[in-house]
Amino acid sequence: MIPFDYRRAEDAAAAVALVSANPDAAFLAGGTNLVDRMKLGIADPTLLVDISRLPLDTVDVQEDGRVRIGTNVRNADLAANTFVRSRYPALAQALLAGASGQLRNLATTGGNLLQRTRCVYFQNPTTACNKREPGTGCSAVDGYTRYHAILGASEECIATHPSDMAVALAALDASVVVLGPAGERILPLSEFHRLPGNEPQRDTVLEHGELITAVELPPAPARSAYRKVRDRASYAFALVSVAAALELEDDGADPPVIRDVRIALGGVAHKPWRALQAEAVLRGAPATIAAFRAAADAELAQARPLRGNGFKVPMVRNTMAAVLRDLAGLPAPDAGAAGTDHPEGPDGPEDAGWEEQTP
């Protein structure tokens, strides 16, 4: 780890001024990702500006039903917040699915959004990585791809975003409040993270020196949930995850008709992937498992799986169907029935690459 200077910011504006003035400066909050990267030698800020003690650590419910979450709210505290647990269960579930209890006690809302990929090649400074060092190539393309993208990738980078929380926030239509040298701006979370394109080193649309001060949620949907499929039950990143918010028509129809739906996917792209094609198929459609699977197929038509992660395609389809089925209150199909949703397992001959692969 290289030597660095440390400053504690007096307020958000002072923090922005300090980082903006130094191209090698970085904000420090919980440090659960930044410090790891510094130890690995893949982050080398010359100045750390500590924002962890700024009074941006509250969850405030507005009169219009919106919720403002300060950037310094710890993941553990947000997951335990009674209002969040009751009104935004997808967010609480996503937070509890991420990392470990010790890390959730340190990790912050803003830091969670800004964490960088856990691609094994990004985290290994001896390998070529366009995200870590632009122009050197992408070792993952011909390497170990089990955890890599099937949507929105480019020849420059096939890494996935690691956050569980961000996937839930995308499905909840959250916005990110940012303070920079030019003042405050508010960004839809769906536009906050970037696909890799020709600049995989840029994870977000933030400019240097801009600081996340809060995340805002619109009034809560009627139903929401988050489900994560991973290799083990604890401290593992998502192979696939699905967050969904569902509104049904209250007209007594059987099956009920979908009034509105929002779906986001994790573990499949460089950013939390908003499933806009699936949403369009489902709005106004009956809430049936057949409709859910058809919507997933519409979204997955653009998927480009790699040699080692073809299993993610049926896994997304099955997990999406299962989450929406549960939100709609439909009965689970028989476990042995053909074509039923088994999010944790393979789904027939198209599931090439399901078996474990080693790097």
Describe the structure.
The chain is α+β, with helices and mostly antiparallel strands and 359 residues long. It is built from 12 helices and 12 strands. It has a 5-stranded antiparallel beta sheet with strand order 4-5-8-6-7. Helix 5 runs antiparallel to helix 8 and helix 11 (289-300) packs antiparallel against helix 12 (312-328). The longest helix has 17 residues, at 312-328. The protein is globular. The chain starts with a strand and ends in a 31-residue tail after the last helix.
From the structure above, extract its key features.
359 residues; alpha+beta; 5-stranded antiparallel β-sheet; 4-stranded antiparallel β-sheet; 12 helices; 12 strands; disordered C terminus
Précis, in short:
Helix content is 26%, strand content 18%. It has 359 residues and is of the alpha+beta class.
Indicate the proportion of strand residues: 15-25%
| Overall pLDDT score | 93
**How are helices and strands ordered from N to C?**
EHEHEEEHHHHHHEEHEEEEEHHH
Shape: globular
Q: How many whole angstroms does the radius of gyration measure? A: 20 Å
Which structural class is indicated by helix and strand composition? alpha+beta
Tally of individual helices: 12
Q: Tell me the helix content.
A: 25-40%
Residue windows where pLDDT falls under 50 for at least 5 positions: 343-359
Distance between the termini: 27 Å
